Backbone:
């Protein structure tokens, strides 16, 4: 992919994300496209619109000792609290769980789901009979 193709792809993704908002008119979308294209042409750099995950040394928005409580797990990128981080990381920051852990140097056992939510889901699964291993052999029919 050439640098020009990368620029157009970046502008296209930004404009597409902006177009999903309900309060945006078609004229606003076109204006944003022209403004972004002009800015990238002036600067000649794609790094001006680099994704947040490309930063090698990210600084946590929340101290690690307060990154999770019993009911919430706080995003170290933006500081917002959630029951589960996976969807937020992908949608807002364009990161996978592995990239998130690597960016902040988190161990594999660092929770990305609130402990109370995890316990609640585990209890529900047990009530539904999941996790049991009680298989019987089929009775041969003669």
Residues:
């Amino acid at each position: 992919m050439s640098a020009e193709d990368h620029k157009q792809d970046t502008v296209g993704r930004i404009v597409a994300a902006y177009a999903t908002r309900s309060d945006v008119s078609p004229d606003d979308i076109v204006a944003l496209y022209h403004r972004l294209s002009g800015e990238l042409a002036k600067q000649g750099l794609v790094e001006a619109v680099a994704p947040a995950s490309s930063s090698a040394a990210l600084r946590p928005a929340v101290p690690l000792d307060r990154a999770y409580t019993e009911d919430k797990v706080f995003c170290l990128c933006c500081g917002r609290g959630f029951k589960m981080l996976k969807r937020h990381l992908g949608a807002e920051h364009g990161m996978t769980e592995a990239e998130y852990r690597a960016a902040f140097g988190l161990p594999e056992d660092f929770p990305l789901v609130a402990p109370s939510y995890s316990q609640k889901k585990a209890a529900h699964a047990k009530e539904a009979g999941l996790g049991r291993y009680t298989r019987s052999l089929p009775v041969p029919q003669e």
Q: What stands out?
A: Residues 101 and 110 are 8 Å apart (CA to CA). The chain has a mean pLDDT of 83. Helices lie at 3-19, 26-43, 86-93, 97-104, 115-127. The chain is about 45% helix and 5% strand.
